[in-house]
Amino acid sequence: MTYRGDVSPGGAPAVRELDQLTITKVSVGPMDNNAYLLRCRSTGEQLLIDAANEAPRLLELVGDAGLATVVTTHQHMDHWVALEEVVAKTGARALAHADDAAGLPIESEPLADGDTVRVGDCPLEVIHLRGHTPGSIALLYRDPAGTPHLWTGDSLFPGGVGNTNKDPQRFAALIDDVEHKLFDRLPDETWFYPGHGKDSTLGTERPALPQWRTRGW
């Protein structure tokens, strides 16, 4: 079955098999948050992006293979409701950008722009995106056998950047970072996975960048 990235609260996960990485997407909680379980196909090591909600469901998804790492994309509560329980029951490392780590319920190792987080043999580049929160991040996997894959939290969605509460300075920071750190660096075929809702590609969204900047959100 072709991966489309469509998930719904309480519904079945969507699974994508790359040569070296398996991506499992699930929607959890009342705010329809996306959580992503990444598994290195050669080592079996697993990493979770956003332990957003429904800890029992996320732990069932992890299964007996264990969980090495949880990365939180930003400090907003709907993205970490299950973090404490998931870490307590798996012993996973908790990671977040240094500027948002203090807003999380448990101590998290600080990340910085340009850091590498590994899931088994697969490296993920940390990209700091200011504006939605001070320490929002995206994670980039450059698939050696295919297109880049990008997890954007709430900084980039199909149709626009994340909420900046109509603050012109925050919006300017976010649209600049998204344009220069993502769109200017990565090809159109880059597939991105947001913190809520459906996936998209940078190529699909690229023509609308000037419109986003003009409208201010």
The helix count comes to 6
Order of helices and strands: EEEEHEHEHEEEEEEEHEEHH
Roughly how many Å apart are the termini?
35 Å
Q: Strand order of the main beta sheet, please?
A: 1-2-3-4-5-6-7
Report the sheet with the most strands, covering strand number, pairing sense and barrel closure: 7 strands, mixed
Binned strand content: 25-35%
Q: What integer is the average pLDDT?
A: 97
Low-confidence stretches: none
Question: Rough shape?
Answer: globular
Radius of gyration: 16 Å
Helix content: 10-25%
How many strand elements?
15
Structural class: alpha/beta
Note the topology.
Layout: E1 14-17, E2 21-28, E3 33-40, E4 46-49, H1 55-62, E5 69-71, H2 83-90, E6 93-97, H3 98-101, E7 109-111, E8 116-119, E9 122-128, E10 137-142, E11 148-153, E12 156-157, E13 160-161, H4 168-183, E14 191-194, E15 200-201, H5 202-205, H6 209-215
Parallel strand pairs: 4-5, 5-6, 6-7, 11-14
Antiparallel strand pairs: 1-2, 2-3, 3-4, 8-9, 9-10, 10-11, 12-13, 14-15
Helix pairs in contact: 1-2
What do these coordinates show?
With 217 residues, the protein is α/β, with parallel strands linked by helices. The chain is 22% helix and 31% strand. The protein is built from 6 helices and 15 strands. The longest helix has 16 residues, at 168-183. The protein starts with 13 loop residues before the first strand and ends with a helix. The model has no long low-confidence stretch (mean pLDDT 97).
How would you describe this structure in keywords?
single chain; 217 residues; alpha/beta; seven-stranded mixed β-sheet; six-stranded mixed β-sheet; 6 helices; 15 strands
